[in-house]
């Protein structure tokens, strides 16, 4: 059975657990940026990964047997703007090095990624099962694109808008202990649980979908 994915322009499911976690506009359109009553402080933001249009869904491709390429778009699915410089985000804790997104690989037959999203904002690769391989982290200043808009510290990501997080290469070498097989890209948005509005974390984990995978020998 098809759980999710696209064949040509016909798509099934939501490519993982991403989607709109927002609860809708508050009375008086206070959460609509186009409204004269727009009051951002009253509106939650909800970070997840984009699944539509197809060009912005999570993708993975094989560069060679030791490296994969990937791309995804960070989406604000809430009704308020996301600004990483705002002290009121989450529990109030904030780190300039805290990751927006953590990615790894997950075998198609398994339920756990090769490298789980680590606790802490600046983990050491020495503590990971494959050393520096089989994972990537996107944090302020390392979003994989030229214009990082200062890590959303001064320019907010408005509701309904997405931002590209593009990584040209993720090493995952067999010599580091990685088994051969078919792999999807696995991701967790806001792995440290400090950016999302509290209660809006249910849609933070997903993968590249049934039909988007690589075979690593």
Brief account:
Helix content is 0%, strand content 28%. The protein is mainly beta and 217 residues long. The strands form 3 sheets. Strands 6, 7, 9, 10 and 11 form a 5-stranded antiparallel β-sheet that branches. Strands 3, 4, 5 and 8 form a 4-stranded antiparallel β-sheet that branches. It has a two-stranded antiparallel ribbon with strand order 1-2.
Note the main attributes of this structure.
mainly beta, 11 strands
Explain what this protein looks like in three dimensions.
The chain has strands spanning 5-7, 10-12, 47-49, 59-64, 67-76, 101-107, 135-138, 162-171, 181-189, 205-207, 214-216. The chain has 217 residues and is mainly β. Strands 6, 7, 9, 10 and 11 form a 5-stranded antiparallel sheet that branches. Strands 3, 4, 5 and 8 form a 4-stranded antiparallel sheet that branches. The protein starts with a strand and ends with a strand.
């Amino acid at each position: 059975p098809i759980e999710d994915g696209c064949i040509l322009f016909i798509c099934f499911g939501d490519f993982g657990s991403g989607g709109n976690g927002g609860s809708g506009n508050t009375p008086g359109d206070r959460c609509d940026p186009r409204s004269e009553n727009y009051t951002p402080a009253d509106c939650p933001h909800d970070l997840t990964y984009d699944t539509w249009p197809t060009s912005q869904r999570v993708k993975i491709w094989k560069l060679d047997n030791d490296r994969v390429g990937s791309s995804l778009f960070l989406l604000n699915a809430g009704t308020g703007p996301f600004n990483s410089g705002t002290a009121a985000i989450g529990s109030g804790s904030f780190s300039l090095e805290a990751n927006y997104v953590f990615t790894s690989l997950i075998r198609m037959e398994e339920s756990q990624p090769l490298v789980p999203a680590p606790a802490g904002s600046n983990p050491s690769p020495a503590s990971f099962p494959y050393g520096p391989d089989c994972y990537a982290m996107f944090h302020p200043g390392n979003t994989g694109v030229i214009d990082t808009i200062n890590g959303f510290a001064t320019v907010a990501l408005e509701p309904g808008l997405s931002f590209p997080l593009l990584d040209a290469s993720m090493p995952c070498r067999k010599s580091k202990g990685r088994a051969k097989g078919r792999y999807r890209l696995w991701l967790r948005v806001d792995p440290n649980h400090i950016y999302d509005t509290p209660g809006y974390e249910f849609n933070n984990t997903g993968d590249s979908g049934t039909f988007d995978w690589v075979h690593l020998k």
